[in-house]
Each structure stands twice: as structure tokens, then as C-alpha cells.
Amino acid sequence: MKKLVSFLVVASMAIPLFSPVAVQQAAASTTHNYRTEVQTHQFRPHGGDKQEVADFAQALVKHRTNPAELDKLLAKDSLNYYAMQEYVKTLAQFQKIEVVEAVPQKLYTVEKEDAYNSYRSIVKFKYIGYTADNKAIEKTDLIGLVKRGNKDGAVWQAWGTVWQDTGIDVSNVKLFQLEKPRKGEEIVVMTTDAGVIKLRLFPDKAPKAVENFKGLAKKGVYNNMIFHRVINDFMIQAGELTGPDGKELPSIYGKDFADEFNHDLFNFRGALSMGNAGPNTNSTHFYIVQSPNVDQEYLDLSALPLNAEAKYKEIGGRAYLDNRHTVFGQVFEGMEVVDKIAAQKTDENAKPLTNPVKVKKIEFVIYNP
Q1: Is 53's pLDDT higher than 50?
Q2: Catalysed reaction(s) (predicted)?
Q3: DSSP track, 226-239
Q4: Which pTM value belongs to this model?
Q5: Which CATH class is domain 176-366?
Q6: Which of 25, 75, 138, 291 could cross-link to 159 by cystine, CB 3.0-4.6 Å?
């Protein structure tokens, strides 16, 4: 049985751990290798350190094209000093930079260092850089900082990069998915026991999924079919079809068909998407996203166009389903019916307990507002 697969996303940032190495007793070099210091203990950053690191990131961005000010922010005695200068040059290529976050991922002290606080930190530095041709590039880098100086003026300085992201284009896209249908456009009218749901289809973006849905619906195979899987604040699912022999019916292609992921379509609230049992296993199952909210954790893990991320926050949806389930339509009228269906009482398998709502019929009509 095919189901809309739910995912628990567990994210972890792989951070290189530096092997403890005894600090050389020889005379200090003109450059300092911050990677070879002895770590004595780790601790959770207190509020002051968090804010100082955040302030440092803002200063690094602000002064990225100002050599005099930039010089104060880099640890010149680091073996990675020149590499850090090259890193700053990559920042300088952007016309504008918006710092999303700069937080210590690892904060520790070291032995045998004459700096006042002897702090070292590996910082997650996430930002969006805007190019001259109006592209928005999202990057998440790991940079190393050292806090040094005397009691009257300890400051953070950058000693090198630990890891650099290649960057992802998150430029805005045209969110046509949420537009009203045009006059003369073919729309879906889905009549259910709970009311009527009207949807747009996107044959230019997901032709196989649209043709499959229309082909099955026009044969009447969805008529009197129940929404067999219902999870409030998530989605409603239908399309569990069996033939006279009790076997599950295939798609119109006679077999499962491939996913059709598109950069312009998202699992917003109201999205019509294919249910599946894994990659490229689309057949007869479909679902409508009902979630009125979005989980911020999933947004943080998703590389979304900026306006799509904002729209998720505004109207809800399930961002983690993007690029896992094919979106091929969108509800434009009747979301109150979807909410009513989602509110049914269900068993432990998310199947409605009594009188499950049925799809009476699915029609395709020309939109004429």
C-alpha cells in the first residue's frame, strides 16, 4: 500500500574535531597554528559570547571591502591568515549581504596561550549574498575565531575557515501556484460528502502526474472513493484503489511512474501532490496538504527561494515534502472543506473511524469567473 511518507528530519552539522596536540615549548613562531592547541574543556556559550560572535559577523560583512577595518578583524599571526584574506574576497564580491545567523557551534579554551581569555570558537556563519545581477546566494560556512587581548580590550578575530559551502541560489521565483485560474483554463471540481473543492492543475510542470490524475478520474475510478488517510494539521490522502481481484490498481501507464520535481512548485497549504512509497513510485495515490502552519526546523533545513520560504510562513504547508513528492495542482477554492475532512476522528493508522468522507465525483470544467 502506498502512503505519503512522513519524515523525521534529523540534522547534524559535521564539524572536524582537532586532535589534542602538545603545544611546542620552542620559541613562539611569527605565525600561530590555532589548530594545534590543547583543548581543555568545552562548555555551552553564555549569552555574552553569543552576542559578541554575532556582532563580529556583522562587522566582517560591513567592513569586507575596507582593508583598514578588516585588518583589525583578522588574526595576522594565524597560519591561515592569507586563506582568510581570500575568504573575505569572496564576501566582497556580493553587492549586499544579509547575515542570517552567526552562532558558536563549538566554544572552548586552550592551554599555554598568553591571550587574556584564551577562547577559541568554531562559528556557523549563514548568510545570503546578493549579486550584481540580482541573484540571492545562500551560504553556510564554518569559520574559526579566537578571542584575544588584555582585560581592557579582548576582541574576537578570525583565524581561518574550517569549511566553506558552495552556495545555493535562493532567488525569488514567480509563485504562480497560488494565483487564481485564468478565464478559459481547465480546472478540477472535486465533489465530496463534505462539500466542493476546486483545484488548478499544472500540466506544464508535472505532465505525467496531471495526465495520470485526469485519466483515472475520467474513467470514474475515483468516484465513491474515501479519503483513507487523514491527519489533521497535515494532509488528507485518497487514491487507494483496488480491482475486482483485490489487487491495487496501477497508474494509467500500467506501472509506477517517475517523480516530477519542479523549482516552481511547493507543498504549500492546499497543494495537490502525489503520494508514494519512495522515489519514482507514483501510481494512484494523491494528497492535499492541509497544514495551516510550517515547522521552522524544516524551513531551516530547506534550500528555498526567499519568497517561497516567506509564503510557507504566511499560509502554512510542509516544506520537507518538497523534492520528495510531486506537486501537480493547488486548491484555490474550498479549503474549508479540506479542513472539515481533516478534522475527522481516526484510528492509529489515520483512517477515519466512522462514515469516512468520500469523493463523489471529479469533473474537469472550463473556468469562467
Answers
A1: yes
A2: [protein]-peptidylproline (omega=180) = [protein]-peptidylproline (omega=0)
A3: E--EEETTTEEEE-
A4: 0.75
A5: mainly beta
A6: 75
CATH architecture for residues 34-169? Roll (3.10)
Residue 358 is predicted with a pLDDT of 96
* pLDDT(20) > 80: no
pLDDT over 70 (residue 149): no
Q: Considering the chain, what percentage of its residues have pLDDT values greater than 70? A: 82
Name residues whose C-beta falls within 8 Å of residue 249's C-beta, 6 or more positions apart in sequence: 221, 241, 242, 243, 283, 284
Q: What is the pLDDT of residue 167?
A: 93
Inform me whether the pLDDT recorded for 22 exceeds 60.
no
- Could you state, in order of their start, the residue ranges of all structural domains in the chain? 34-169, 176-366
- Closest by Cα among 331, 276, 269, 256 to 295: 269
Percent of residues in the chain assigned helix, strand, coil, to nearest 5? 20, 30, 50
Which is nearest to 239 in space by CA: 256, 216, 267, 205?
216
Which of helix, strand or coil describes residue 178?
A: helix
Give the model's pLDDT for residue 37.
61
Q: Please work out, in degrees rounded to the nearest 5, the angle formed at the alpha carbon of residue 108 by the alpha carbons of 29 and 10.
A: 125
CB 20 within 8 A of CB 38: yes
Between the CA of residue 210 and those of 102, 138, 275, 304, 329, what are the distances in Å? 43, 32, 13, 24, 8
Angle of helix 81-92 relative to helix 47-62, nearest 10 degrees, comes to: 70
DSSP letter, residue 176: G
First to last CA, the chain: 39
Element (H, E) at 215: helix 207-218
Counted residue by residue, the chain has a size of 369
Q: Are 199 and 190 in contact (CB under 8 A)?
A: yes
